[in-house]
Amino acid sequence: MRMLYISFAWLFIIILIWALFYYLSVEKNIDFFDVELKNIYSSAINENYNEAQINVNKIQEQWKKTEKLWIYFVHQGEVDDISSSILKIDVYIKTENKSMILSEIEELKKLLRMVKGNESMSFENIF
User: Fold this and answer.
1) Are 111 and 81 a contacting pair, CB within 8 Å?
2) Which residues are within 8 A (CB) of 112 and not within 5 positions of it... i.e. 6 or more apart?
3) For the residues of 96-115, what is the DSSP string, one character each?
4) 86 burial level (CB within 10 Å; 0-12, 13-18, 19+)
5) Which of 14, 46, 74, 93 is 20 to 30 A from 103, alpha carbon to alpha carbon?
């Protein structure tokens, strides 16, 4: 019986760490990226590429910090896809390719929603 209590305690600790990671890292960072992507989107629509470049630089700085933590908890393929998408947006802004900026922003939003869904605290993800 003692082993059962120890097992439940460890399970509770693991779920608690997962919840802290989700709400303190995943949720917070995805909200930040979402706001900045909306700013880039509106800047690209208005063809204000200097403002878009400032916002993509903010995303790149935040992503460098976020990536260091996420590589331990999030599937590596998803982390690589997000990194690639951010770099593509940066290049498209530098070349002032409006249609590609807008499409890549939508792709990055989709990738971030996938991470949010995969790491969320749902019954399906726990068991």
Assistant:
1) yes
2) 30, 33, 34, 82
3) T-HHHHHHHHHHHHHHHHHH
4) buried
5) 74
User: In this structure, what are the phi and psi dihedrals at residue 47, rounded to the nearest 5 degrees?
Assistant: 55, 40
- Model pTM score: 0.83
- Tally Cβ neighbours within 10 Å of residue 119: 21
Give the model's pLDDT for residue 69.
Answer: 86
- Identify which of 115, 92, 90, 96 has the alpha carbon closest to the alpha carbon of residue 26: 115
pLDDT tens string 80-96:
999 999 999 999 999 99
**Backbone angles phi and psi of 66, in degrees to 5:** -65, -40
H helices of the chain, in order, are: 2-21, 27-45, 49-73, 76-94, 98-119, 123-126
For residue 47, give the amino acid letter.
E
Structure tokens at 46: 């208005």
Tokens of 80: 């690589």
Report the C-alpha gap between 14 and 22 in whole angstroms.
12
The residues, any chain, with a CB within 8 Å of residue 21's CB and separated by 6 or more, are 73, 119
